[in-house]
Fold this sequence. Notes:
single chain; 160 residues; 5-stranded parallel beta sheet; binds magnesium ion
Amino acid sequence: MPGAEPGIHALHGFVGSGKTTLARRLERTLPGMRFSPDEWLVALSGPGLNAEEFPPAFARVMALMEEQWTRALELGVPVILDHGFWRRADRDALRAQAAALGVPLTLYALTLPDEEALRRVRVRNAQPGALPISDETFRLLRAPFQPLEADEEAVWVGQE
Ligand SMILES: Nc1ncnc2c1ncn2[C@@H]1O[C@H](COP(=O)(O)OP(=O)(O)OP(=O)(O)O)[C@@H](O)[C@H]1O
Ligand SMILES: [Mg+2]
């Protein structure tokens, strides 16, 4: 494949901050293979999983995707991981994994005021194939979100 060297392009940002939108752009411009877990989850399990069903189904999707994206890297294809990487521990694990695989890692940080992100999520909820996120879920998900810390290198992506 012409263009980018094999590497990991990982997207960090809260719900509705524009990760998948940027991932789709990178898919074309790098070019690379995009891995968006929400799309796989909806394709495999539908949009209606309840709170009990969601975590194990999501874990299965993540495991399946990891097999594919590590294989893509071995084949020399850049990968775009649209996972969010909310927890510091997830980002530390990814940095360690990139080092072990011997590939460069670029972390993209997206920020958007909650008010605007929620507005966009409400619009998106009405679109086919969307993983619906209620106002209440949007608020509850704030707790597990850990912003980047000062020592974490990232490309900050500004938005209109
Ligand atoms: N500049 C923009 N102006 C208006 N809407 C936008 C803009 N960029 C993205 N959107 C829309 O906002 C919604 C949220 O964007 P996107 O799905 O990329 O966010 P996300 O970070 O992937 O969210 P999630 O964490 O839920 O996966 C989408 O419907 C997208 O089309
Ligand atoms: Mg997304």
